[in-house]
What we know:
alpha/beta, two-stranded antiparallel ribbon
Amino acid sequence: MTTTFVLVHGAWHRPSTFDLLRAELDALGHPSTTVNLPTAGPDPRGGLAEDAAAVRAAIEAVEGPVAVLAHSYGGIPVTQGAAGLANVQHLIYLAAYVPDTGESMFTIHGIPDPEDADGLFPIGDDPRAQLYADVPGPLAEQAIADLVEQRVQPWVDRVSAAAWHTIPSAYIVTEQDASLPVDLQEKMSAHTKQVRRMATSHSPFLSQPAELAALLDEIVGH
């Protein structure tokens, strides 16, 4: 049976960031769906629990085997939300956080929790360099225009379950990443069963969608 990809975006992003990748996956015979994380958007709300619930609902809505692709922050709600779901055959972390139970994005970075997490985290001064360094100019400009607000709360919330303990997992290291440090990616990739690499910046679903789709197809085995 064909594997369906559930694609989970990172902070400040929306599901449409995967449109090019979805077209390439479709060409390879893989249907896909996306998750709309509540903590990112024009009207962001909630925390990790809400994001993880959205991931879980998207997976449960798919009939047949699922591979979950998590990008960047998306690795955190995926790690919690996919736990215990029998139809998830693969977890794939793309330049993503791989927390263990009791960890958060802040603890992974060694950052103390803020006194008040009920606010927004601003995007950096140069999102082009941070997120889209190797993305073609017009496409990068559109991606920047599509960025939305991001709540701090899910970055502080601790993960209550870690799906990678029981579900086969892979990590794709983006070797020219200016957003999630490569040495931290390498460290977190030790939680996964296999490690692949792409010589891209943080967003290969925009800079190299065909190559990424081919790699994902290879990871799931058909």
